[in-house]
Write a structure and sequence with these properties.
D-Maltodextrin-Binding Protein, domain 2, about 280 residues, 11 strands, about 50% helix, DNA-binding, 3 domains, LysR_subst-bd, seven-stranded mixed sheet, two-stranded antiparallel sheet, alpha/beta, 12 helices, globular, Arc Repressor Mutant, subunit A
């Protein structure tokens, strides 16, 4: 029984159909269909009832799903244990928001690399929502995001409370300017929109950018305003042309930290990474 077949079976069961499962697995429908057919032939029983465009688990399928989840979980735990190889070799896959990457990650990764020079680091920057999905999908070992995070499969360790401030070009009135945001999924986005409503901004239109410096660059020339960590603004090359304004604590105070899966074999290197980040943040205060 191949793990690929079990992964495919699990996807079909979770998504409720062949097409949806093929999209989740980034493959064509025929591959999914063939894998399920071969699995049914191997087990000598029908796993799904076909109904219209969807499928429903047959009794044998419900039994297999429980065992498949356990086997796939064990496979992921095994991979994690092999990757860490103690703390001096292997691979660590880290995700981070762009603001966190700009502020804290470089010096933390430097310290981690100095302590464990043979450790292979893979870094991905994205929005908090995307990074959480990547951790849940076992594509990242951990991610540094804006919280809070409430999920039964995830552990969120708060490392710092980031202070967000309203940022606009010096000499301009943000009440008359559009809002400039990161794309959908950014943890600061909803807070910025809430602030816009709270303050009664006359302009409700928004602009989206994909990079931190792109946003601050546009804000610095008066194209709009944004919500950003105070420390990010202070360290930006655009800082001389920017003005900041404090916002209410329920919008401006954001718990920020590391999220990782809590149900599998722990990677001890994560504790080492968290300590390096805390040290880096202390140096940025």
């Amino acid at each position: 029984m191949e793990l690929l077949a079990l992964r495919t079976f699990e996807a079909v069961a979770d998504e409720g159909g062949i097409l949806a499962a093929s999209r989740k697995l980034n493959t064509v429908q025929s591959n999914v269909t063939n894998r399920i057919r071969r699995l049914e032939e191997e087990l000598g029983t029908e796993l799904f009832f076909r109904s219209g465009r969807g499928v429903e688990l047959a009794p044998a399928g419900r039994v297999l799903l429980d065992y498949a989840r356990r086997m796939l979980s064990l496979e992921r735990q095994t991979a994690a244990a092999v990757r860490q190889l103690g703390e001096d070799a292997g691979e660590l896959r880290i995700g981070a928001m762009e603001t966190f990457t700009a502020l804290h990650l470089p010096s933390a990764l430097r310290d981690l690399r100095q302590a464990h020079p043979t450790l292979e680091l893979r870094i991905r920057t994205d929005t908090s929502a995307v990074l959480i999905d990547k951790v849940l999908a076992h594509k990242l070992d951990c991610a540094f995001i804006a919280g809070p995070v409430v999920h039964p499969a995830l552990q969120f360790d708060e490392l710092v409370q980031e202070e967000l401030v309203q940022v606009f070009a010096a000499g301009t009135d943000p009440l008359l300017s559009p809002l400039i945001l990161f794309r959908e999924g950014c943890a600061y986005r909803a807070r910025a929109i809430a602030l816009q409503r709270t303050l009664g901004h006359t302009r409700t239109d928004t602009m989206e950018f994909g990079t931190l410096e792109g946003i601050l660059g546009c804000v610095s020339v008066g194209l709009g305003w944004t919500l950003m960590p105070r420390r990010v603004v202070r360290q930006s090359v655009h800082a001389p042309r920017l003005a900041i304004r404090e916002v209410p604590a329920d919008i401006g105070v954001v718990p920020t930290g590391m999220v990782y899966r809590k149900t599998e074999t722990p990677l001890h290197i994560l504790e080492t990474l968290a300590q390096a980040v805390v040290h880096a943040m202390a140096g940025n205060t």
